[in-house]
Amino acid sequence: MRTLSLPVPLSSSLSARLRWPLAALAASLLAGCSPGQDELNDWMAQQRREVQPSVQPLASPKRFEPQPYQAATGVDPFSNQKLSVAMKQEARQPNSLLASEINRRREPLEAFPLDSMSMVGSVVKNGRPFALLRVDNLLYQVKAGDYIGQNYGKITRITETNLAVREIVQDAAGEWIERPSSLQLQERAR
User: Fold this and answer.
1) Is 12 part of any domain?
2) 39 — phi, psi (to 5°)?
3) How many domains does the chain have?
């Protein structure tokens, strides 16, 4: 006949006595679970012996040779003397392009930049072409010879789809030159 054995609960004093030895046994088992540590250390040592660092030596810094400032004896570029000479020269040689533009009366569409305008149509009245320009949601009717834009733009030709403008602008050297521009017909998508 078989006997059945049931687990018997340990008394609290017995479990307290076994707690520390069991913890020490578990710690030693975990420490023994790391095989290959010696192999890893050997491999790392071998790699340190085999690999030779290749460091390029730094170039020595170039010697700085200070240069004397030669422009101290020259004319200051921001002096009043130089500015007055330039103004006198401009007054003696007025640009013919700009002289006629300065003395005339300004037109209303010259207050707006050319890129804020759009051509929305063209009309022919009495055989003369007119263009319809939209500026700030207002329509303006213009003809050849009218002035538009902020760069002294004069309308030179009007076709059904194009408005040719001659502007007077300064180039990089400060000279006033003519520049052709145009406005294309802007069609709305329906």
Assistant:
1) no
2) -65, -40
3) 1
| Tokens read off for 16 | 């307290």
Handedness of CA 69, 74, 79, 82 (dihedral sign): negative
Give the pTM.
Answer: 0.51
Strand 162-170 relative to strand 128-135, pairing: unpaired
Determine, yes or no, domain membership for 37.
no
CB 119 within 8 Å of CB 131: yes
Tell whether 132 is covered by a domain.
Answer: yes
Domain contains 71: no
> What are the pLDDT digits (tens) for 11-60?
555 566 777 777 777 777 666 555 668 888 888 899 988 888 888 888 99
141 and 152 in contact (C-beta within 8 Å)?
no
138: domain CATH number?
Answer: 2.30.30.830
How does pLDDT run across 141-181, given as a tens digit for each residue?
A: 999 999 999 999 999 999 999 999 999 888 877 778 899 99
Burial 106-131 (b: 16+ CB within 10 A, else e): eeebbebebeebebebbeeeeeeebb
Closest CA to 116 of 132, 133, 135, 131: 135
